[in-house]
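ok posting inputs for the adenosine monophosphate job
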Amino acid sequence: MLNIVLFGPPGAGKGTQAAKLLEKFNLVHLSTGDIFRSNIKDATELGILAKSYMDKGQLVPDALTIDMLQSEADKHPHANGYIFDGFPRTHPQAQALDDFLATKNTGITMMLALEVNEEELKNRLTERAKVSGRSDDADPKIIQKRIEVYNAETMPVKSYYQAQNKYKGVNGVGSVDVIFSALCTEISK
Ligand code: AMP
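and the output
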């Protein structure tokens, strides 16, 4: 299986690149942000709870997120592989993902990280707010909070995969196609 963790701060382009990667490599896309938003739209219990954290730019608690991710992954038992997009975002989530994949006799192949500077991220998120309809993109204070949460809680996940020799960083500034081909080069190395 080809199991990729697509990593990067909010606005790095994970969703855009995930769409291209899953088509090329025939993978299942698991985006925790998308799954939360679909639960919010359907006003499920999980959605209502998740929204209370997302609206503040905070992370949804690990236990909830991990359970949800696992049950989504279990809906695709014959997958060629998965792209994990926006997950794991904490060290316990990364550990839980390894444990979960081990029960399926597989594991993470690599973490692909989109590296983008903070100023570029803020500009992109402000632009995205005009079209995404996402309330967490609309408020500069919430954007700032999400970047802070990323630096404090999510950045350490990078060293988790570095320690396993699975971290691959790619410059995330440039055209979508150039970045995509850099990601494909890393995958085929
Ligand atoms: P995203 O679409 O990946 O930018 O996620 C939007 C929001 O959903 C985040 O700011 C968090 O509040 C929540 N979220 C998404 N993925 C996770 C995760 N793996 N752990 C905790 N919260 C998450």
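notes: The first strand starts at residue 4 and ends at 7. Residues 2-188 form a domain with the Rossmann fold fold (CATH 3.40.50.300).
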